[in-house]
Amino acid sequence: KRRSRYRPIDQYAISVRPSVWFSERDGFRVGALEFGSAFANRYRNSAELWFNTRNQQVDYDLSYSDYPLTWIGKHTAFSAGASKTYGVRVASVKLGRSYRPVYFSLSAERSFNVYAEHMQFVEDNFPFHLALWERRDMQVVGMEYNYDEQRGDPLRYRASFETSFLSRKFRFTKI
User: Fold this and answer.
1) Cα distance between residue 80 and residue 63, in whole Å
2) Helix (H/G/I), strand (E/B), else coil: 150
3) Of the candidates 14, 20, 81, which has an alpha carbon nearest to the alpha carbon of residue 52?
4) pLDDT for 36-53, tens place per residue?
5) Using CB atoms within 10 A of its CB, is residue 103 exposed (0-12), middle (13-18) or buried (19+)?
6) pTM, whole model, 2 decimals?
7) CA atoms of 33 and 110, how far apart (whole Å)
């Protein structure tokens, strides 16, 4: 988490920094990263934008989250994002709820999330040779339950269900 001790709690704060790095595949990636938040991180956003010098493509990663959504219930969060990296465009939304028996203690935290994603190939730039859903759109919906014990010996448990039953051509279900 990026925090500044001088950031006002009742105003939106934004930080921007440049980003330059090199990879064999993309050449130099030149870009900028932006992070913003307000009201003690209740509203958070990030935007990352890169230009790949070798393949002359622009990649991005955008996200927004709102926690808590008090009109639904305490400890409920919403997030949305869009990205295009390595020729795959992804848009997603997620709604989740955290549960803790005694909130201000170190007891186990439980969370339940539902989400939906839309993925699509948009360029011949995917780094893996065998993508089962080549040249197709894919819609995925899912839910997950997380259990995270934070005292003593840490115990983490995750159960998830995900399906692409909305896709016309490539379908899968995983538990």
Assistant:
1) 6
2) coil
3) 20
4) 887 666 788 899 999 999
5) exposed
6) 0.75
7) 31
